[in-house]
Design a protein that fits this description.
Radius of gyration: 15 Å
Order of helices and strands: HHEEEEHHEH
Strand order of the largest sheet: 1-2-3-4-5
Distance between the termini: 29 Å
Shape: globular
Length: 164
């Protein structure tokens, strides 16, 4: 089950370390890379397909992205699984991140497909979060917003799930 909005906000603020924008101070890249690979393999098995896996992410607050093709789901669009470098957070989105609002996602993202993804995440100790609160303007303590021009402030999505 994804974290509820209150739990999500508490965790985001807890993970928002000053100066640690790409990875937390205790990030263990080999361990997290191996867990990400197990996730990609598990999703391919659960959906009986070949997923598009972005393993070559650099200068980002996320480790990688796995795209489950629409042809392997009951959904009208692909399912995108974005794994953050922070706290085992994972955003599961219908289509590309930001493609659907919350109501559209509820309507078009079949519960059966969502559960298959969430079951795999849970088996590997990941914490799924809804993407929708993450589009809120970033107002944390890390100083991360200094990387952006004042006329284009970052979101919490940028902080934990995007390129820097």
């Amino acid at each position: 089950m994804p974290l509820d909005e209150q739990q999500t906000w508490a965790l985001l603020r807890e993970l928002d370390e000053p100066g640690h924008w790409e990875v937390p101070h205790d990030f263990d890249r080999p361990v997290e890379r191996a867990r990400f690979e197990r996730l990609a393999e598990g999703l391919e098995r659960r959906f009986d397909c070949s997923c598009d896996v972005d393993r070559n992410v650099q200068d980002a607050s996320h480790l990688g992205r796995i795209v489950i093709p629409a042809s392997a789901t009951s959904a009208p669009d692909q399912v995108t699984v974005t794994v953050s470098n922070f706290g085992g957070l994972v955003a599961v989105t219908l289509g590309n991140p930001g493609s659907y609002d919350e109501d559209e996602e509820q309507e078009f993202f079949p519960l059966r497909d969502r559960r298959r993804v969430e079951d795999e995440l849970e088996a590997l100790g990941y914490l799924p979060v809804s993407e929708h609160p993450l589009w809120t303007k970033y107002n944390g303590i890390s100083g991360f917003d200094a990387l952006y021009p004042p006329d284009r402030p970052p979101s919490w999505w940028d902080r934990f799930f995007d390129y820097l």
